[in-house]
Write a structure and sequence with these properties.
three-stranded antiparallel sheet; 3 domains; 13 strands; alpha/beta; TIM Barrel; four-stranded mixed sheet; 461 residues
Length: 461
């Protein structure tokens, strides 16, 4: 029993209710059925909710200690990626931080922790050939892919250079799929290679088509490992797929692959965004969107400024769109980035600004020590500082910053009032989501079915 086998055992536990239930009663037939050679008792602290969690110091078996070390290293790596994503330009980072703080009280703590708020994503297709019934971004059918022609290659490299110049080190945390299946594009690996040549790392790939061409999947994993890649992911949509995955790949081949088991009886939590609520009426209000930044599509030549949200009535795909446009050149993309920075991210909180508490925040006055609480469905923010409380009570969506300060300056220093207002603003309390009805919906160049030169239109890549 080694670390990779321990991970395989836990992957099956996560994906199969029959396997989990059987471990407590008669595990050997199930272990033989799945061809997993472990001692469930040794691993009980990893899979049995009724058993105390194992810690590294308590783990009696070397493979368990190795697995716990590996798990901790993955968490450290994810944290390092998040810290790298914080290195964008200051106006963007301030806006991004406000959206992160907004989302922290708009979602469950587990979901808030899981969302990376990456700075950009580049789609290399329009639509998806897989059509997962639970798709959180409701990807449409595959219509077109951006093959790696000379023209698309130049555009892609130029876009990466623009994004690299704008984001700096944070650009290395971007990736190349959204409402798309990476393997739908036969040149996906070429794009990954260019990304590596530009930024020195290979972005994560999440694929639900890993089983279509196993040799191609293996080559992709090898390329990612060779080119400084991160942990890739397979979406598993049935127990039959889970079994095929286990029969096809060795534990060592899946050692650095996360299995997203969307199987019946899985322990994975599904969210209601997109098609999620249709597939699972018990899905929680939430989102799979993980970008607070720019969504760029190389087929449509479109770009959007987006951020995750859980207001699924207004934004049913689980992310709000703040601005969108078409582009013809990379210079157009650069201009879009700067325009968003100027018009959306850098809007000052000056005397004329009328702050308004977010619609999802409900005011609740409580006795000390909390005194003043802003509550949402998923959490609460407590305030005991008298200046903060005075300001929050004065924010009514009618009075401007200047008026609030004038009304309170007899009791508090104006400098302290302005300083505190700035902090409340940066905490995301005034971050009202954009109105979908007010969003521009520009047509694609040449009509709804047109694509830029170099695009191969296809229903099956």
């Amino acid at each position: 029993m080694n670390r990779a086998v321990v991970k395989r055992f836990l992957d099956v536990c996560k994906g199969s209710r029959e396997f989990r239930d059987g471990l407590k009663h008669d595990p050997q037939p199930l272990l033989q059925k799945w061809n997993i050679d472990v001692d469930p008792e040794v691993l009980r602290g990893l899979w049995d909710d009724e058993h105390p969690d194992l810690t590294e110091s308590e783990a009696p078996h070397p493979a368990v200690r190795d697995y716990l070390d590996w798990k901790a290293s993955r968490l450290r790596f994810q944290q390092a990626l998040r810290e790298r994503a914080e290195n964008g330009p200051s106006h963007f980072q301030n806006w991004r931080e406000r959206q992160i703080r907004r989302f922290m009280t708009e979602a469950t703590p587990e979901q808030s922790e899981a969302v990376g708020h990456w700075p950009f994503v580049l789609e290399l297709a329009r639509g998806c050939s897989v059509g997962c019934d639970y798709c959180g971004v409701a990807a449409g059918p595959l219509e077109a892919v951006a093959r790696y022609t000379s023209e698309n290659g130049v555009m892609f490299r130029t876009l990466l250079n623009v994004l690299g110049d704008y984001f700096g080190a944070a650009a290395t945390t971007g990736f190349l799929y959204w409402a798309t299946e990476p393997f739908d594009n036969l040149d996906y690996e070429k794009y990954l290679r260019v990304f590596f040549e530009t930024f020195g790392t290979t972005p994560q790939t999440t694929t639900a088509a890993w089983q279509r061409n196993v040799n191609r999947t293996r080559r992709l994993l090898d390329q990612s490992r060779r080119d400084n890649g991160v942990m890739n992911r397979f979406s598993i949509n049935s127990l039959e797929q889970l079994r095929f995955c286990m029969e096809t790949f060795t534990p060592e081949e899946l050692d650095d692959v996360e299995l997203i088991t969307q199987t019946p009886g899985s322990q994975m939590v599904q969210v209601a965004a997109g098609r999620g609520i249709e597939a699972n009426p018990m899905a929680v209000r939430g989102t799979i969107a993980c970008v607070t930044g720019f969504l760029i599509n190389l087929v449509d030549h479109s770009i959007k400024l987006i951020s995750p949200c859980t207001d699924l009535k207004r934004w049913p795909l689980g992310y709000a769109i703040y601005r969108q446009a078409q582009f013809e050149t990379a210079d157009d993309v650069h201009e879009f980035l700067k325009a968003c920075e100027r018009d959306i991210m850098s809007v000052p909180l000056d005397d004329a600004t009328v702050p308004c508490l977010r619609e999802d925040l409900k005011v609740e006055v409580q006795p000390p020590p909390k005194q003043f609480v802003l509550k949402t469905e998923f959490g609460e923010l407590s305030f005991s500082d008298t200046v903060q409380i005075a300001i929050l009570k004065a924010v009514d969506g009618v009075r401007s910053v200047g008026k609030i300060v004038r009304d309170l300056m007899n009791d508090y220093d104006p400098a302290v009032l302005y300083y505190t207002l700035g902090h409340l603003h940066q905490d995301g309390l005034f971050e009202t989501l954009p109105d979908p009805a007010a969003l521009d919906q520009p047509p694609l160049p040449g009509g709804p079915d047109a694509g830029p030169p170099g695009i191969i239109m296809s229903g099956n890549a």
